[in-house]
Every structure is written in C-alpha cells, then in structure tokens.
Amino acid sequence: MIISNMSETKCFLSRQGCCVIMALSIMLLASSSTISLAMEQESEQHFKMISVVEYTGKGQFRNQAETLFKVRKDPLSNNEVQYFFTANDQNPNLANKSSSTAFSFILDRNTHYLSGVGEEMAFLAKVNNESAKSLKIKITKDKVGKTWKQSFNLSSLSDSLPGRLEFTLTAMELKTEMFGEMIAVRALSEPFFVKSGKDSVRSTINAIYLFDPKIEDIYLSISVFEAATDAYGSKEILRHEVATYRTDATGASVDLSGLGPEFEKFVRKVGLSRKGVKVVEESPLPQWAQSEGLAAAQVANICAAMACEGAPNPVVTVCIPAARTVGAQSLGQIPSIGTFATAETVAGSLGKSVVGIGATKIAMAPAVLGMGLGTATTVAAGAAAGGLAIAENNSTKHRSPIVP
User: DSSP alpha helices (H): ranges in 87-228?
Assistant: First the structure.
C-alpha cells in the first residue's frame, strides 16, 4: 500500500515537473518574442524635419520644407550598420500632398566611415569620412557641466571650403517628465571663411543636440548656418535653419515637457530667428549661395553634429538628411510650404508641434545675425518636389563645384 502511494506520488511529481518545464518554455518563448519585437521596434525610428533656407540681397528668397522620415538600422558583420531612410515631404500646396524618396548608406562603427552611397551622396560621405579623422572626444555623461573644444581638418576637401572648423562645446543634463534624464550638447563655431572666386564669405554654424543619457538616441536637434558677404555690390546673407525632432509613426512629436528655462536659455545661443525674411522682390539664390554657400552649409551641419556626439552615430540619422535637403531647397527643387499668412519660422513650428517647446522662448534675433529682423513672413516658391532627394539632372554641376 505504501509502495503504491509512493508510486503515485512519483507520477504526480513527474507530471508536475513536466507542467513546470512546459510553462517555463512558454514563458521563455514569449519573452524571446517580446525581446525580438522590442529590438525590431528599436531599430526603426521616426522623425520630422523642418528646414528653412533664406536669402536677402538684391532680392529675397525663402524656402521652407517639412519632411517626415523613417530610419531603419540593420546590423551587418564587422560592426557595420546599414541605415535605410524613407522620407515624405509634407506640402499642402502639392496636388498629391507629398513626395517620397528613399536612400541608404553603411556606417562602419570602428572607423566611423560611410560607404555604400550613390553619386548624389558621394560628397556628403567624403565630408563625413574626412571629419571623422579629426574626432577626439566621444561624448559621455562625464562631460556634463563642462566646456571643451573640437576642431576639424578639412584641408583635403576643397580650396573653396575652410581648411578648418573650430567649435566650442558645452554639455548640460536635463530631465523630462516622460523620458527622465537627457543630455543636451551645444556646438558654437568660430567664424570661418568660404572662398567664392577671389572673395571670401564669412560664415558660422551653431547647433544643439538633445540625447538620451547614453548618447545613443536623438530626441531633438537644431542648427543655424549663416554666410554673409558684401563683395557683390550689396549686403547679402544666406541663412539655413533646420530642426529635427523624434515622433511616433503617425508624425506626432514625442513629449519633451519638463525641459524648462535652463534648456530655453541653452538653445537661444544657437540663434533661431523669431521672424522670417520678408520677400519684397522674389529672386533665385545667386551663384555663390547655390555653390560655395550650399557646400559650406552641408559641411558645417555634418561637422557640428559630429562635434556634439564625438562620433557620427547616431547623428548621421539627422545631419545627413539635413544636408541632402538644404541642397534640394537651395536649387529650388522643393516647393516651399505655406503662404504669406501661414508660413512659420523654425522656432514657431517647433513651438506649435513639439510638446514642451515654446516658440518665443528658444528664438532670438540679434542684429549681428542679420536675419530674423523682417516685419512679415512670406514664401518664395520652389520648382518641383524633391525633399531629401538631390536632383538627378546636372546635380553635381549646380549643387557644388567641389563634389567629386
């Protein structure tokens, strides 16, 4: 009788053990599926970019583009990552409402070099790869509260571009209600000169990036490029402002509430305009702005982004699309959004679209910037849809005389 009871007990325990093993297996499978899904979701990010190109001189030019884009990151062998971009330009003035484009490149996380690009991106890849050679400091949390320098040797790019860019960088720690701790890094450039013929065009670039504490994800970036010259008979100023912020799949911004007045003060030194250029006599961009000015804006945006991170990953997800877009805008390939009554500055668009950002609190328009002093905002129309795409026809000749 005792033997029978012991046998039954063993069978019961055996059945219980099988049940436990099956339950653990199911839990592990479910956990594995959850982890795989989380990794898949993390490899895909969504952003909105607001980019404005303005010019004042003998005439005025203004083009504003707003683009939603998705970035997917696929790991490759040898610590390489392939980035895939899909972008849609949001334009209520177009009959089909938006235009789409796609591109990709490969980033080597060991060397920081870009590869796998087409002819239209060869110049941007070269800028990235030459700039990567100068990187000194990988930004980490221990840089919070400190100020340091970063310079880039660009002498191998072109005689028309500055041989060197120098930045003063500052990092600060912030907290948001939704995401907790974040790190903001700001880069302010020393003035640099771009050669146009026998003349030199004085230029600057300022930028700020808002990262997670590990500097692995970007939630907001803002940059302001400006070039000014009086070599052609009148005071001429070319200006490019671009802001990119994280969104969900529908294009709604993430919630950055809680950044507070310290962040607002930190951003003001970047120099966003409060008002757009008033277009009295619409004109295309002059040759120097379309060639040397455009190339300098592209180079400066990439260098400023890399300085803020100390590496080109993840900032390539933002600065490369920005550099592509300013090229298309400067050539009039993107119809400008808005009308006299509805066009927004970058600061204004951020204030309306991003939870936790105030339009008037992050913008400033000091006289030394030259722009942002107009009394009204209007728009110079573009020619054709294009967004993040560079023109296929004669793009190399008109975009920049130094593109390989």
Answer: 122-132
Q: What pLDDT, on a 0 to 100 scale, did the predictor assign at position 25? A: 46
Sign of CA dihedral 244, 246, 249, 251: negative
Residue pair 176/258 in contact by the 8 Å Cβ criterion:
yes
Under DSSP, is residue 202 helix (H, G, I), strand (E, B) or coil?
strand
**In the chain, where are the structural domains located?**
1-42, 44-399
Phi (first) and psi of residue 392, to 5 degrees? -80, -35
Q: Can you list the alpha helix ranges (DSSP code H) found in 235-336?
A: 260-268, 287-288, 294-309, 316-330
CB atoms within 10 A of CB 124: 24
**Positions in the chain short of pLDDT 50:** 1-3, 6, 9-10, 12-13, 18, 20-21, 23-41, 339-341, 365-404
Q: What is the C-alpha radius of gyration for the chain, rounded to an integer number of angstroms?
A: 25
3-class secondary-structure state, position 347: helix
What are the tens digits of pLDDT across the range 329-385? Answer: 887 778 787 544 456 889 999 988 998 887 668 887 443 344 333 323 333 333 333
Q: For residue 54, which phi and psi values (nearest 5 degrees)?
A: -130, 150
What is the pLDDT at residue 96?
A: 53
Residue with tokens 């870009």: 114
Encoded amino acid at 62, one letter: R
Q: What number of helices (H) and strands (E) belong to the chain?
A: 9, 12
Distance CA 359, CA 275 (A): 11
Residues 6+ apart with CB under 8 A from 20: none
Residue 367 phi, psi (nearest 5):
-60, -30
Burial of 6 (0-12, 13-18, 19+ CB in 10 A): exposed
User: Does the model's pTM come out above 0.85?
Assistant: no
In this structure, are residues 284 and 293 in contact, taking their beta carbons and an 8 Å threshold? Answer: no
Q: What is the pLDDT of residues 85-132, one digit of tens each?
A: 998 877 655 555 556 789 999 999 889 999 999 888 899 999 999 999
CA pair distance 404, 401, nearest whole angstrom: 9
